[in-house]
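Students often ask why we bother encoding 3D structure as a string. The short answer is that it lets us treat folding as translation between two languages. Here is a chain of 488 residues written in the first language.
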Amino acid sequence: MESVKRLSSDWRYPTTLLCVYGFFSTVKPLEPFLIPFLTGPDKNLTTEQVNNQIFPVWTYSYLSVLVPVFLLTDWLRYKPVVVFQCVMLFITTALLRWTESVLAMQAMQFCYGVVTASDVAYFSFIYSVVDLKRYRKATSYSRSVQLLGYTVGSVLGQLLVSFDLMSYNNILVFTLVLTAVALVASCLLPMPQRSMFFHRKHSGQRAAEEGAKRQRGGSEDEERHSETSNTSLGDKGDTKEQRVEEDEDSEEIKGAASCSQVALQLWRDFRQCYSSRQLLYWSVWWAMATCGYNQTVNYVQVLWEHVQPSQNFSIYNGGVEAASNLLSAATAYGIGFTEVRWEQWGELALGGFSGLGAAALFLMTFAGNIWVCYATYTIFKCLYMLLITIAMYQIAADLSMERYALVFGANNFGALLLQTIITSVVVDSGALGLPIVPQFIIYASYFSVISVVFLIRGIFSVCKAQRIKKEQSSLNGRQSEICEEHKF
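And here it is in the second language, the structure alphabet:
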């Protein structure tokens, strides 16, 4: 029994379960063939209906439920929302399998919007149960395992379609079985003991718990402290934990907070989190880039159908998605083992890699060759996954208080707000309803703007850091000269 408790308290246990959930919930063999499925004999929908009437519903539903889902995430302490996400994914797949009309497909897209909005619980859960020094590895593991799930799903889909082993409808039934496995894993996740606003422990309870911990393992704490004090990340973790405790002690609430208290606390914490200028810059990039990425991924299959309408190249979609997801998973996983001063070079990296992403989108749009489209899409996706993994870790490490769901939710809300504006103006049949090529020209230009903004900011930051370093070096030199003069 003691060994079971020790296992459940170790950071590897919740990380492993969350990775199992993330893997099986993202194995979707039909996703690379969604456009052929919807426009084929199974659903008999037109490309215009899919592009301008069905897909925009996902954006609107995602935006409308993001804030309520975020509040539920905190109130229910992460795990129930992760379970709910899996249930909604099950419903989404069932609607896709057993319904056919445009209205039913719009309902399916609404449910999928709820699924994607619940991702805030998936990525916030891990930070509520692991130590600060484990953030980078936990982030890279949870992100890369999702991408690995997409890769396996794409490979499975490619094999099943290429060798005609399963029909599209049977593939969806197989997906339901995989989702059921993910549901079991989500139910086994440990329940976090507290959250940001609704479930805070009062100071007496926390003090008693801390005293008990000290009595049980004082020598272990001292040893752990001596180990972490040898690294800068460990120093930051100790300081950050003290700040978190001081902040929570000063703003304690007994039991569940009232709605007015939660709203006030939410606003105060929001202001405090975004008072960090560096965190603000990373969050702005997150919101802008995620908006453009979602639009690109949502409509890229329509572009591929436009590039080669007379040839059945859609049978290769699974292989392309598999390659892009596998390479993206490798880059995301590799971030967990890189030692780069992202606080100095991060903004320059955001601008430079965003520029490469814009170039890939322009080439994809104007090349007119399906293989060039496939290659540039893979490059674009790898670049985004590389940068979003860095951004997630950097934001989590830079937070002065444990408000991961708040910041991640706010960033996603900003992305969805931008995406809703673009969708309602550019894509929706009630507005411009542009064809697919002008849409992608807009997306590529959008990433070009992001690149220019962050390149300018990055160059400024690097020059400022070099100037401060030079001034510090000059000051140290003068101090050394003064010391030498005093010796004589």
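Translate back mentally: Residues 360 and 376 are 5 Å apart (CA to CA). Keep this in mind for the problem set.
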